[in-house]
Amino acid sequence: MRGPHNIWRLIRTGATFERTGAMREALEAMDAPPRLRLVARIMGWPFKWLGYKGDPALPPVTRAITALGPAYIKFGQVLSTRPDVVGPDLANQLRVLQDRLPPFPTEVAKAMIAEELMRPVDALFSEFSEPVAAASIAQVHQAVRADTGERVAVKVLRPGIEKAFRKDLDAFHFAAAMIERLSPASRRLRPSDVINHFEGTVLGELDLRLEAAAASQFAANTAGDAHFRVPQPVWSLSGRSVMTMDWAEGIPMGDVAALRAAGHDLVALSERVLQLFLSHALRDGYFHADMHQGNLKVAENGDIIAFDFGIMGQIDEYTRRVYAEILMGFIRRDYRRVAEVHFEAGYVPADRDVNNFALALRAVGEPIFGMNATQISMARLLAYLFEVTERFGMETRTELILLQRTMVVVEGVARSLNPAMNMWETARPVVETYIRENLGPKAALRDMRRTALVLGHFGPRLPSLLQGLLMRRDEPKQEPPPRSRSATAWLVLAGGALVAVGAMLGQAF
User: Fold this and answer.
1) How far apart are CA 337 and CA 327, in angstroms?
2) Where does the ABC1 atypical kinase-like domain lie (predicted)?
């Protein structure tokens, strides 16, 4: 229940942020309004001694989040996808947030598997290892299927994790509501929307059937991609709390020395990983949104293997075309066209001046193109771009933020393999191919055919639909029914409670 009982949890959170030195850094990164900063410090500083100490070797914010436990770790990872909220610098720090936690006992995992799949583990697997990885939500075991002898990865949710997450989600929602109430200026950060986004992401990860479905969909989309593999889920050995997938054998992409020693072409790998990501995003509209080194391996034959499909991005076809045009405009340095695309898509309010917007975009792009290949940075471009779009009243679009953030992550992966990679030149052929196939005459004919098919499907119903629409327009509007006295009484009580809470909170000032 999202009530005042959550205040204790928030006090413990504030105390931990104060004790680790993260409070000031986090508030500055989010450019929090002065009133909100005051309330945060009041709730944290007097209780500093109650906060968790954390690992002094970590940066302040990641130190605090790691000390607070699994829900906060996952929240930090999701916030790393929202540089529009926490700022590019803090988003980059949160991106490398580690969630390596102590594993829970293997016997507990086996009991959970047996309960979920309704068969003893020994009947399902001829071999079952100790945990090979343990994260905030689940841990992974290596096993061998008893029926086929194939090596697989078995992912098992932490016991009680859903209940624990729901408690913390309750506190997060309460905190977001308090922030919006105490500081109207903070509403531009849309705290409640951020928490809703986090809740949707986490609850999806807590049902491993959905992750298995994401892996299956991603594998189907990318089946024709050369030198790219997605482990397939084993549906008969998967459920809500257990997911079994093909074992991915390879060298972690973060181990550059091992990749070099194995004779892999690092330049080719760097170009392939960026081009694959862009192909998935533009061609399919469905992409791996957590594509860092820890979720990528390189097979012996040079194939890139992706795994861990808890966070996936999805964008519709129209948005993909808009994004491709924006990318292509920057690549060609046609800032007027980039500005026009923003206005045509409705991303920038129509009352703003397109020429001024194009000029501001030129100020974003030209410094980037004035650098050599080793200095060109998507992260820096996005930092400037956020400043410009905020100044011109562009509303935040979560799907584009996730796409852009993932591009920053993939750029980092590619640069770790080849620091001299020019990401614009590498991206150009993928974007040009997409535009040629989706924005030319051929694409227009394809769109017209689709429209005709849809109209043909509804053709027999069009006369009745039109008649019903016209008749509803002519009907007199009906007044809403009056509220019952009981409903009115409840509203009065609720309003009184809100006023009382507001008065108590107001005393803090």
Assistant:
1) 11
2) 97-342
* Crossing angle between the packed helical segments 441-458 and 423-438, to the nearest 10 degrees: 50
- pTM, two decimals, is 0.72
**CA-CA-CA-CA dihedral for 196, 199, 201, 207, to nearest 10:** -150
- Give catalytic residues, as residue numbers: 290
Q: Count other C-beta atoms under 10 Å from residue 224's C-beta.
A: 7
Return the domain boundaries, the chain.
4-97+162-205, 250-459
User: Nearest-5° angle of CA 390, CA 391, CA 395?
Assistant: 35
Residue 76 · residue 85 · CB < 8 Å: no
From CA 492, how far away is CA 507, in angstroms rounded?
23
Contact 231, 153 (CB under 8 A): yes
Q: How confident is the model at residue 452 (pLDDT cuts 50, 70, 90)?
A: low
Model confidence pLDDT, tens digit, residues 408-438 = 788 888 888 998 887 778 888 888 888 888 7
Q: What is the DSSP letter of 467?
A: H
Helical spans, DSSP H, in 155-190: 161-182
Alpha-carbon gap, residue 421 to 376, rounded angstroms: 9
Q: Which residue has the tokens 């001694």?
A: 49
pLDDT-above-70 percentage for the chain: 74
